C-alpha cells in the first residue's frame, strides 16, 4: 500500500541529511486534530487520527530518525562512520518494516525507538530522550498497554531528572520552567514517589521566581490534593510537615 493524502494527512518529500535518500513521509494537518481529553502528564487522547504516529520522520534507507522538520534536518554531532557501524542495530530495531508505507501503530513505536538511537549519536540533551520516551508512553496508553506505558514513563523520568540536575541548558522543547517542574512532579506521582511529587508540586505553587503559568499552578494544586485524598494522604502530610520544619529551621 502506498501513502495517500487524506483530509487529515499530507505527503511531503524529504531528503535524508545523512545518506541523501529522497523519501515520502506523512504529516498531519494540525488544524484538523481533535482532542478528546488531556492527561495530567500533558499527554492527549485524540478523536480519530493520532498525531503522535507522524511526529518522527524516518529515513527508510539508513534509519536515521528524529522529530519532524528542523530537528530531523539538524544532524547534531553525528559521526557518519560511527552511525554506519551501528546500522545493524538500527536495522534490527526497524524489524524489516518499510517506512515508505502508511504509518501504523507498529511503525510509530519503531520510529520513536529509532529516534532514541539517533539521539545518542547526535549527543542530544537527555531531555530529548525523555520526551521521546514520554511520547512512547502516551502511544502505549492509547491502546491500553499498561506495562509498556509504565516502563517508558520511568525511562522518561530518568532522562528528565538527568537533564534537570546535570545539564545547563536542557532541551525541554516549549515547556516553561514552571511546566518542567510540574511535569517532574507528575511523573514522580505516577511511579509512586510521593515525597518527590509533593516537593515538585509545592515548588510550582509556592516559588514565585518561576513565574509559572496559571495552568500548571492549577494542575499542581489538583494533583497535590488528589494525593492527600487518596491512601497516600498521611505520607503527603508528613512531607508537608517536614517541609515546614525545614523552613522554620532556616528562619
If you had to describe this structure to a student in words, what would you say it looks like?
The protein is mainly alpha-helical. It folds into two domains: 1-124, no CATH class; 176-251, no CATH class. Helices cover 54% and strands 12% of the residues. It has a two-stranded antiparallel sheet with strand order 1-2. A hairpin with a 6-residue loop joins strand 5 and strand 6 (65-67). Helix 4 (105-122) runs antiparallel to helix 5 (126-142). It starts with 8 loop residues before the first strand and ends with a helix. The mean pLDDT is 92.
Which features would summarize this protein structure in a list?
mainly alpha, 10 helices, 251 residues, 2 domains, two-stranded antiparallel ribbon, globular
Write a short abstract of this structure.
With 251 residues, the protein is mainly alpha-helical.
What is this structure's SSE topology?
Blueprint (H helix, E strand, L loop, with lengths): L8 E7 L6 E7 L5 E5 L5 E4 L8 E3 L6 E3 L2 H4 L6 H6 L1 H8 L10 H18 L3 H17 L3 H21 L10 H14 L3 H13 L7 H16 L3 H18 L1
Antiparallel strand pairs: 1-2, 3-4, 5-6
Helix pairs in contact: 4-5, 5-6, 6-7, 7-8, 7-9, 8-9, 8-10, 9-10
Amino acid at each position: 500500500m502506498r501513502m495517500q493524502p487524506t483530509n487529515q494527512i499530507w505527503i511531503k518529500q524529504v531528503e535524508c541529511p545523512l545518506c541523501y535518500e529522497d523519501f515520502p513521509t506523512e504529516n498531519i494537518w494540525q488544524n484538523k486534530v481533535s482532542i478528546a481529553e488531556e492527561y495530567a502528564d500533558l499527554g492527549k487522547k485524540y478523536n480519530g487520527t493520532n498525531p503522535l504516529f507522524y511526529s518522527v520522520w524516518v529515513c527508510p534507507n539508513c534509519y536515521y530518525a528524529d522529530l519532524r522538520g528542523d530537528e530531523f534536518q539538524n544532524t547534531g554531532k553525528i559521526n557518519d562512520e560511527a552511525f554506519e557501524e551501528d546500522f545493524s542495530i538500527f536495522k534490527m530495531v526497524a524489524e524489516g518494516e518499510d517506512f515508505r508505507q502508511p504509518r501504523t501503530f507498529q511503525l510509530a513505536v519503531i520510529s520513536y525507538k529509532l529516534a532514541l538511537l539517533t539521539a545518542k549519536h547526535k549527543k542530544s540533551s537527555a531531555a530529548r530522550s525523555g520526551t521521546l520516551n514520554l511520547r512512547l508512553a502516551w502511544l502505549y496508553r492509547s491502546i491500553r498497554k499498561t506495562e509498556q506505558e509504565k516502563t517508558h514513563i520511568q525511562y522518561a523520568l530518568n532522562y528528565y531528572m538527568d537533564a534537570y540536575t546535570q545539564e545547563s541548558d536542557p532541551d525541554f522543547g516549549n515547556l516553561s520552567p514552571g511546566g518542567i517542574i510540574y511535569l517532574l512532579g507528575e511523573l514522580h506521582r505516577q511511579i509512586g514517589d510521593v515525597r518527590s511529587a509533593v516537593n515538585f508540586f509545592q515548588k510550582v505553587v509556592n516559588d514565585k521566581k518561576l513565574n509559572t503559568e496559571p495552568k500548571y499552578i492549577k494542575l499542581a494544586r489538583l494533583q497535590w490534593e488528589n494525593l492527600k485524598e487518596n491512601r497516600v494522604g498521611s505520607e503527603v502530610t508528613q512531607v508537608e510537615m517536614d517541609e515546614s520544619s525545614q523552613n522554620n529551621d532556616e528562619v
